[in-house]
Amino acid sequence: xxxxxxxxxxxxxxxxxxxxxxxxxxxxxxxxxxxxxxxxxxxxxxxxxxxxxxxxxxxxxxxxxxxxxxxxxxxxxxxxxxxxxxxxxxxxxxxxxxxxxxxxxxxxxxxxxxxxxxxxxxxxxxxxxxxxxxxxxxxxxxxxxxxxxxxxxxxxxxxxxxxxxxxxxxxxxxxxxxxxxxxxxxxxxxxxxxxxxxxxxxxxxxxxxxxxxxxxxxxxxxxxxxxxxxxxxxxxxxxxxxxxxxxxxxxxxxxxxxxxxxxxxxxxxxxxxxxxxxxxxxxxxxxxxxxxxxxxxxxxxxxxxxxxxxxxxxxxxxxxxxxxxxxxxxxxxxxxxxxxxxxxxxxxxxxxxxxxxxxxxxxxxxxxxxxxxxxxxxxxxxxxxxxxxxxxxxxxxxxxxxxxxxxxxxxxxxxxxxxxxxxxxxxxxxxxxxxxxxxxxxxxxxxxxxxxxx
Length: 454
What we know:
Order of helices and strands: HEEEEEHHEEHHEHEHEHEEEEEHE
Distance between the termini: 55 Å
Number of helices: 9
CATH architecture of the largest domain: 3-Layer(aba) Sandwich
CATH class of the largest domain: Alpha Beta
CATH topology of the largest domain: Rossmann fold
Shape: elongated
Structural class: alpha/beta
Helix content: 10-25%
Number of domains: 2
Radius of gyration: 25 Å
């Protein structure tokens, strides 16, 4: 789709965005899964050495007895990991009988623990990059935004332009995704030096390998800034592509990078103020919501030149599920005030802050999210076992914001802010530990009282 009017057809593609989103399992009354019951007269259980050498007896009145371990251990040490049932879905392995539980769960009474090895949820990231004519300008302080708006050419051709800085920062960010659990692609706007947008990215979303990095690097090197700023059309088509693309696995993200305001709208007329407002409203009130229902989140970077669009870009990030803080300024998309997005307009060093913003975004996209085996109960624990370590370490449930000092695990969130019990998110030092150790194992433990931050 090469003409601005044609992106409207993609709205039909997005109308079913929520249909293939993960189906939630029914929640029992009260929001908690039924308590695990013992169905056998006796069963094995884990002792403090992590082996399934203990024995629990089922009593019809009192339930499971404490775990009775061999005589080398005190008989009053309670049970841990039981045998469990069939393997879970969504990246979960079958429970392993010999899985060792972390110290806080060893010997726990009335604990029918079952351990599942959890795999990290992959990420698919489509970068939607503004290559409009104003990207030719130098960023401040070399060239003012006003000067660029008057004459969109570099004031000092010997200094890097907005576009050259953007290309370098994107190459660095994409290189940091190599050999990770992420897939990435590139889409540019405009594609026809006016208001054109394309339903097919310049580089499709694929796992970030050496050859794929070369393809994205070549695409960036082959682009010269020209044309308008069809933000709405480019973002809508990015949503449609991620929703339709089979390679876009796991958590899906659009990363919008722009140095301007919407200039095309539905009709492709920069002077039609009512049409531009209508296009922006449609994106914020309709398309972003459908994208969130399809597990597509939207990061937004506002480069120098986007000052007039702060309210719109802030609202797009907020509605897209990536607000930089819970109390960020949003709510008026027509204002020049808002900071839910990465607003780089006032930075003294555009290259530095753009690199930092892209690093923050890719770090969140890779985000330390792991699947849980049943998705209906809050009664879980999370533990990790580092490379070369024998004993696992417990992580505590920490419900403070990840960006607000949390250090442990918490449940992911649905678009409406409610808990998504099918995924846990690691925060703070817990996440950094996982990222720094490629051989680390993450286990989700069912059936025991959750260890919480004290």
